[in-house]
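This protein record is not my work; I was only asked to verify it. Take the sequence as given and treat only the tokens as open to question. I have pasted the whole thing underneath without changing anything:
***
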Amino acid sequence: MDENNDNSNQANNDNNKIPEERLQETSHSVTINGKKISYTAHAGTMLIKKEEDEKAPKATAEVFYVSYTMEGQNPSDRPITYIFNGGPGSSSVWLHLGLYGPKRVISEKDEKAIPPPYQLVDNEYSLIDKTDMVFIDPVSTGWSRAVPGEKAEQFHSFENDLESVGEFIRQFTSRYNRWSSPKYLAGESYGTTRAAGLSGLLHMKHGLYLNGIMLISSVLNFQTLRFSTGNDLPNVLYLPTYTATAWYHNKLSDVLMNKSIEEVVEESRQFALNEYAPALMLGDRIIDNSKKYDDLCDKLSYYTGINTEYIKQTNLRIEINRFVKELRRTERITVGRLDSRFTSHDRTSIGEMNEFDPSYAAIQGPYTATFNDYITRQLQFENDLSYNILANLYETWKYDKQQNQYLDASETLRKSLNYNPSMKIFVANGYYDLATPFFATEYTMDHLQIEPHLRNNLQMEYYDAGHMMYLKEDCLKKLKVDLDRFYSL
């Protein structure tokens, strides 16, 4: 017998061994609205299995999660919220340590990024007083991985992501006896796409009905965001956020600068709907009327802070990556995409587009450092793997069933509302969010084609910040009030 070959086979068997589930339990407390809340935290992993064989379901992935349960409560009466971020490729760290969880990161002060070392503090605005929470890291994010012998790519598509996250939710609901609990989903960015998709999958496949969905910085219809030839919709829908950004950076006329942010964006909305959109519908024919064309260019400059000649060079279409570079080009400053309040510098000011997003750079360090310290020191869960805050899945994510069309999860949300008319929907929008602009979300919600009485199920709120509006404490405080009210509906 070849001893070396025997050892090699043993090593391969060890490498292909399915990991065992892990669970770490700790007890904590936090004070919210003057009341001490005692809660139990669970940090652990759960195996997702495929029922290829009823006698021996096949494990395909190991999903990492953190859950918080308020002590002394009846699970049947206590709401439970399943929470995730987006990307695709993002862990749940942002909503975990930014909004919902009992700890939060201080990542900005006076609307500026702060230097290390970073601070993690009790979150007096947490939702733990209203709901138990489960923060889910989809496969390939955080510490969630495909098990040995399985390919991670099988989870990297719209439909397969819904299947794996939906299966985790079903398993968790069963394992911890939460079928009688009021059940909610909360997602941010692509996480709102996932939440809308899950609203259909959960009730159709698993019979799991939702009480409500929270959409933070929403994108359901991808046509509203894709700047591509022949699709003029984003040009119209981004305009009010361009206006808000220019207002924040003091790049508009005195007339507009003397108005409130709400007044400025409403004026921009009306221009976008009543003048800009009809003009783009004319295509090249708009140039035939030189006075109308010049007036339109002047108004676009008025509402964006971008000079008229540049607007003419863009054929009236200002793409987002150009806008963030152009707005303060003469000062050699680039503004943020996730949050256009933030600024930075590229190597030169001559480039057509930005080198990086200064708003993401401002939060990546604080959230990464504090989470890795928190999960090990306070929740006592250890893992030698790198925790993938944001995995690079965006470019390789598959939309196999959406070939030659835009993904539109709003249609699933419409069906879910009709199927489950008691389900409530909360939508949070940041005025300075250039990743998922609020006017695009309004457009999507206005085109659900639902009956008038179901429109009462929708609640839209606005915040004076960007994509992660909870970075700003005033907005976090308002979110707490708004979400408390939503859970009470």
Remarks:
- The chain has a mean pLDDT of 93.
- The CA atoms of residues 48 and 61 lie 5 Å apart.
